[in-house]
Amino acid sequence: MQSNPLHKRAVSQIINALRLYAPEGVIVSFNGGKDATVVAALTCAGFAGYYEEVGDIGPPPRGIFFDDDLDFEQVKYFVKEVSLSRKLSF
């Protein structure tokens, strides 16, 4: 399988943000949508690449989810499932 250059570029930018702000300073917003799911996956890949680069295992990516009474229960369930499977800290 060939590597996608856009994927590499996105992960590289996240690694650069981690170098600049440290893992504690990088937070991903997640609302359960398709775009946010891709961004969360890229963020996790960036964290993995950063930790591999520095030779350490640090805290998982932090995420933020704005819980709203208008959200469907399925969305809340999906957010919880993604946070557990991707080890996002909300």
Task: Describe what you observe in this structure.
The protein is mainly alpha-helical and 90 residues long. Helices cover 57% and strands 7% of the residues. It has helices spanning 5-21, 34-54, 73-85; strands at residues 27-29, 62-64. It has a two-stranded parallel ribbon with strand order 1-2. The model has no long low-confidence stretch (mean pLDDT 91).
Q: What is the strand arrangement across the widest sheet? A: 1-2
Extended strand count = 2
Helix content: 55-70%
Output the radius of gyration.
Answer: 14 Å
Taken as a percent bin, the fraction of beta residues is 5-15%
Major sheet: size, sense and barrel closure? 2 strands, parallel
Low-confidence stretches: none
Helical stretch count? 3
Mean pLDDT: 91
Number of domains: 1
Outline of the structure:
It is built from three helices and two strands; from the N terminus they run H-E-H-E-H.
Task: Give the secondary structure arrangement, pairings included.
Layout (H helix, E strand, L loop, with lengths): L4 H17 L5 E3 L4 H21 L7 E3 L8 H13 L5
Parallel strand pairs: 1-2
List keywords for this structure.
mainly alpha, two-stranded parallel ribbon, 3 helices, 2 strands, globular
